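hey so u asked for the seq, here:
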Amino acid sequence: MSESQSVTDAAAFPPLPADAVIIVPVRDTVLFPEIVLPVALSSPEAIAAAQQAVRAQRQFAIVLQEDLAAEHPAPAEMHGMGTVANLLRYITTPDGGHHVICQGVQRFHITEFLEGWPFLAARGLHLPEPLAEGAEIEAHFVGLKQRALEALQLLPAAPAPLREAVEAVTAPGALADLAAAHMDLKPEEKQDILETLDLVERLDKVSRLLAHRIEVLKLSQEINQQTRATFDERQRQAVLREQMAAIQRELGEDEPDADLDDLRKAIADAGMPEEVQTQALKELRRLERTPDASAEYGMIRTYLEWLAELPWKLPDPAPLDIIEARRILDADHYGLEKIKQRIVEYLAVRKLAPGGKAPILCFVGPPGVGKTSLGQSIARAMQRKFVRVSLGGVHDEAEIRGHRRTYVGALPGDIIQAIRKAGSRDCVMMLDEIDKMGAGAHGDPASAMLEVLDPEQNGTFRDNYLAVPYDLSRVVFIATANMLEGVPGPLRDRMEIIQLAGYTAREKLEIAKRYLLQRQLEANGLPPEQVVVDDAAIAQVIGDYTREAGVRWLERELGRLLRNAAVRVASGESGPIRIGPDEVGQILGPARFENEVGMRTSVPGVATGLAWTPVGGDILFIEATRIPGRGQLILTGQLGDVMRESAQAAMSLVKSRAAALGIAPEVFEKQDIHVHVPAGATPKDGPSAGVAMFTALSSLLTDRNVRSDTAMTGEISLRGLVLPVGGIKEKVLAAEAAGLTRVLLPARNRRDFEDIPEETRQKLAFVWLETVDDAMAAALEPSGDGAAVSARGDGSRPLAASGRARPLAH
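ran it, structure tokens below
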């Protein structure tokens, strides 16, 4: 019968004769009468037989195979005697195993195997237990019971029910079967006892085997007493090892531990410093005196394995080709010219002074701009192993320095684990999201990083688990962060900060064409010639479906386009599939983002500001209106303390210039000014909206519109000066993406002009502000008939529709 044959096929066979017995073949189990035993079914024949017995509610016979390795036992490969049993329970396990729990009834001698069923079946003789009469049988019975009780007494953990069962048994044959079933015997020995029908002979065989087992137990006790006597109280933990040694001496098998020899050789070949090797050999000698079963043995062995597997030797330096390094950087990254130039300078210094203390680079920028891939490119250029350590969410100092070995389950810290993973002492290690570490109840991991990143200290870095110095000075550390504010000052002082700003639309288009499309084509199993995505389609995805500094969402949306093409190719569509702007809307749905300029309403009191966020720049609308009141300033839009102070400063500045602006003083006494920044669910803070606040208030109170093509940023002082702010590149890129054409920037930010991409500089007009007067002259349109604002009426204006970019509802 093949393994694939279903047991249910048995329904197609004729029913078994009434005098036939179902045979369940087993490999390593012998069942005795009156014994309850679980039996594992290992062959398809055994499973089929057991399931047929369940179906027919019949007894079956457990029979041992003569060939224990046979996968499909034949009748000729079976012993001639087994035990008829009652099925108590049939069990299947999650891993596909089949088991039965059965109780032996009586011996069964097979006389004839039957054919024609998908399982073994036979006719035979049901052998009742012989009569137990006579003095000889009684003598053997008493002697066997005494030996069985003696053996149970010598066993260290003999179950009490077994002792009670031995004392309660009254039939000599049942006692012999019970003792044989519970003795540690080979299957052939148990089968021999099962086939012994003569009671005297069976009792004699079991008595001899039990006497041998008693001698072994007594010898074990003597060895235990001899070894225990040679040790004092402090050395009792080594008793198990001494027992093993005594047993090996008795058997003439006293051989050295091969595993410890391998460990000793690994320590010798690891190239450890002398101090570390001395410590390792000391721990190895301690391991040799520790019993295998002790918890301390595993702890010491794990420690030695860590020491032996760490890369202590410094590999031969790989040649550093600066021209090839530049080629790798250009091939892996589009744009980022200043960043790549700084990396080339870094590599050049490493080539000329390989033993010098090179600076530790920290790439800071929004998600998706290529910080991690820059580290991988540096590793490729230096021909070194690359390993990444994620520090996001780390709040325990032990995750950096490791736990001391006194703790259960202690391990080295992430730094040592990463070096072991890299297998090289001069690897390139990227410390990802270093700004996401936080202090917890178990110490400050940022403080532990100080030693790791300090070239003066990391040559002797001490991990708490290793407790020996490890040289990190040849590791090239590269850190990444989204926001520099999350990095503690002392840690920031040890790194050279390299800012990565967001990409322009043109750069995103080139990145998509050079890298993202190819990657997504491979991920979706499409050959490059099978699908063509137009540049206009990519530009539409960039403008209408993604709004980010990096390119992660862009790659996801391109993946959606290509998955749609993959469905068409898999459906049998032939020829190259071209995806243009018309197909983009059909596949991705309605545009998620709209042009902010189209959403604006030109009314007084609305100014367009520029903001910096961790994921790039953004535009920010400042809306102001007047309502009857008592001269209060109302601020809404979930503004932070600094931004609220900017609004108050702008209001004070407008009041101080009321006469010059032609604003009646009564306006500030009889009307409240309400300033709102839309997207109220998003927290906002920072001083850079000061110019926009002042412009919005001036526009409202002088009844002059702010130019709809203009955005602005800058901090203001009470003297009317425009102070510099950060994130100029990101803010200007946001203005370009929003369709604006003029940008007002603080004059003291001219130093940041070179950071703005050339194509963006060509598209936008820049106005440099020294004072708020410059901002009013550049931002406000000429006054109309109603420029002078009187105190009569509330002078309120309808609020402008917010033009802030936000996802449209689907």
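Confidence is low (pLDDT under 50) at residues 1-8, 785-810. The chain has 29 helices and 24 strands.
lmk if thats what u needed
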